[in-house]
């Protein structure tokens, strides 16, 4: 049951990180002010951040499915 909660926590963290990558972007000439900016072109940065956000959300979905699986297996084992 602990693995289920840990998986849900990892899913929450991963999806939160994905949403951060998706919605927080600022490209400044000052390098210290940049947020999620990797190259000088805005379009390239949006593509990179969109890809990162997709990956983090998919990883979060996988963790959520693993957590649900842990709870289902635990419920089946407790019925026996």
Q: Tell me the domain tally.
A: 1
Indicate the percent of residues in helices. over 70%
Strand coverage percent: under 5%
| Biggest pleated-sheet summary | none
Mean of all residue-level pLDDT scores: 93
Based on secondary structure, the structural category is mainly alpha
Which value, in Å, is the CA radius of gyration? 18 Å
Beginning-to-end CA distance, first to last residue = 16 Å
Return residue spans where pLDDT drops below 50 for at least 5 consecutive residues.
none
- In sequence order, what are the helices and strands, one letter per element? HH
The outline comes out as: rod-shaped
The total count of helices amounts to 2
By DSSP, the count of extended strands is 0
What brief labels describe this structure?
transmembrane helix, membrane, 80 residues, 0% strand, 2 helices
Describe what you observe in this structure.
The chain crosses the membrane at residues 5-26, 46-76. Keywords: Membrane, Transmembrane, Transmembrane helix. With 80 residues, the protein is mainly alpha-helical. It has one domain (2-79). It contains two helices and no strands. Helix 1 runs antiparallel to helix 2. The longest helix is centred in the C-terminal third of the chain and has 38 residues, at 42-79. The protein is rod-shaped. 12% of the residues are buried. The mean pLDDT is 93.
């Amino acid at each position: 049951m602990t693995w289920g909660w840990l998986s849900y926590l990892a899913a929450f963290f991963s999806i939160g990180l994905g949403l951060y990558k998706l919605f927080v972007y600022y490209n400044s000439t000052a390098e210290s002010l940049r947020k999620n900016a990797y190259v000088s072109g805005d379009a390239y940065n949006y593509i990179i951040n969109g890809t990162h956000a997709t990956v983090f959300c998919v990883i979060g979905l996988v963790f959520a499915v693993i957590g649900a699986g842990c709870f289902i297996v635990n419920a089946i084992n407790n019925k026996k």
